[in-house]
Amino acid sequence: MLQLNGIVGGKNPIKLLPGQRIEIQTIVIDVPNRKKLVLKSLNFLLSNDAFIFKVEALPSTGTFTVRGGAGDLQPNKVLFNNRTGDGVRIFLNIAVINSARNTRTLDRTSSWLLKLARV
């Protein structure tokens, strides 16, 4: 089991224009051959209900997206299934998108906790 947590931080809140996306965290995870990277649980708190929280396993197409300002979820979502015959390095990317029609502010205390498994 892997655990990833983060907080926006910084000195000032971040203004997001309508439809704007900001990447708030990226880490590297190695996925062994014949293993899956699974998002087991997600707990997040964003400063505005208009924000979309997105988890991506790049360069694959595995994503998990949730709307709203907060959540405590158990998606059990497969983000990557390694059938390549070798270990693969995945970039796990966390992003926030403003779905509102006006500018919204992402507060410095917005935070998240992900639990992932390689099964």
Description:
- This protein has 119 residues and is mostly beta strands.
- The chain has a single domain (2-118), classed as icosahedral virus (Jelly Rolls, Sandwich), CATH 2.60.120.
- 0% of the residues lie in helices and 63% in strands.
- The chain has no helices and eleven strands.
- The strands form three sheets. Strands 1, 4, 7, 8 and 11 form a five-stranded antiparallel β-sheet that branches. The protein has a four-stranded antiparallel β-sheet with strand order 3-9-5-6, with no helix packed on it.
CATH class identity: Mainly Beta
| Low-pLDDT sequence parts | none
Radius of gyration: 15 Å
**How many helical elements?**
0
Reported CATH architecture: Sandwich
How many beta-strand runs?
A: 11
Largest sheet: 5 strands, antiparallel
State the order of secondary-structure elements, H for helix, E for strand: EEEEEEEEEEE
Could you tell me the CATH topology label: Jelly Rolls
Our measurement of the CA-to-CA distance between the termini, rounded to an integer number of angstroms, reads 9 Å
As for the number of domains, it is 1
Helicity, as a percent range:
under 10%
Beta-strand content estimate:
over 45%
| Structure classification | mainly beta
Determine the CATH superfamily: icosahedral virus
Report the average pLDDT across residues.
Answer: 96
